[in-house]
Model the fold of this input.
Amino acid sequence: MREFQINHDRRKSMSVHQQARKVTTHTLQEMKRAGEKITMLTAYDFSLAKLVDNAGVDVILVGDSASNVMAGQVTTVPITLEHMIYHAQCVQRAVDRALIVVDMPFGTYQGNSAIALESAIRIMKESEGHAVKLEGGAEILQSIERILTAGIPVMGHLGLTPQSIYKFGTYTVRAKEDSEAEKLIEDAKLLEQAGCFAIVLEKIPRELAKKVSEAISIPTIGIGAGPDCDGQVLVLHDLLGITMDFSPRFLRRYLNLADDIDGAIKSYCSDVRSGDFPNDEESYTS
Done:
């Protein structure tokens, strides 16, 4: 009886996160059918990934946006496969519940399905992530299909595709013209038919995102695509107010950590220079 009570108390003391089941691609499908919104955030390192996972986020994207927020690059183009594997390894060590999706970087899947498969296999084996994400529609369909033959889950990405920035020359809203909108809908259907488990829709008109979300049975994850997608994703550093030089219309900042961090560091410097830190309580005695 006492052992039962101890186990009961232990279960009661467990956090909601610890009790929650592991998120899988199947979980996301169930969430769409139930009308339950999917939450997705980026993470690139162990410490922040652990906080994101503990908070109950459904999907963690190890995004090629690490090129911008971690490495200071202007675009996502320069980041390499080795960089992405490293960041994914850091995230994987921290995560218990969330589904981990890893961006395949520019140059690792376009135009050569054999290289695409090899790159995806490296990501899965070396990082132990759960899925990969590729940007594009019909033009990369062969690569998606080949990756799927290896049993590797694939998330699609349509609309604004940052790896193609030099082609488009701008980060403005995509698919405002009828022809591009029609192609996006067809691409979404192609990705679903190929076997993708979800699709990110980035910076497209909300009406189009709603139409796509209703036209396919797999979940859509929006970023700048309005409220009718099956889920939403943001870059964590933008949400937390760490990066302050990026303010698109779709971004909601939930904190302003840049100012808090600046104040904390300035206080530390002041305390060191004045001799206030470390004090007697913060020092060891023999």
